[in-house]
Amino acid sequence: MDVRLPVIVTRTLPGARDTADGLERLGYAAILSPMLTIAETGLAPGDLMSVRHLIFTSANGVRAVAGAEISPDLTAWCVGPSTADAARAAGFATVVEGDGNAEDLARLILASHPDGPLLHIANEAAAGELVAALKSGGLEARFSAPYRTEAATSLSPEALDALAGSGPVILLLHSAKAASAVAATRAKLETAALVAISEAALAPLQRQPCRGQWIAARPNEDSLMDALQRAAAALCP
To answer: Rounded CA gap, 100 and 77, in Å?
Structure first.
């Protein structure tokens, strides 16, 4: 790239730094502005009782239980590559990697029909749908929320400066909750191109005036970077 196009990263830490590092390698000017923070609350007593499989729909779930006494012999079912990498780094010996969203992961689990109880580990907002899908398919599943997410009240000063400039900027959206947090700040996004990991992640800002909207073909980091490259090509032909 001839121009250091600024890209605002709204993902939670520490994943936001990984994304920023990747953007810098591609020649972009990454601006950290995490719109969610993680507050760990811990597993409740008995959550892991008789569990043979853990389900992670984000790397945050893996990190939230990294300090708990969890047997590495448990199977970790992961929504995508980034989450699977976090599970392997945490010491899980058996990791099943999906390449989609929570619904795709549920279908993968149902098709495999694993023995023994499954525990979905995520924040409180994710409770219900995935476990309900597994139960409807005849599997024993339950949910635990060892952490919660808290929304930032503003974009970072560096992000606001970039949005206030006359040149184009890309706003990168990894989740609907982050997009909702951005919307709640009422920040002006007329100079921004919105690049989202999924339709759901874009939805809270879909009607916001902006320079354009791009959605990843698949809900994973690689596809998100592909969408970002398409947006950059349109902004800086």
So the answer is: 12
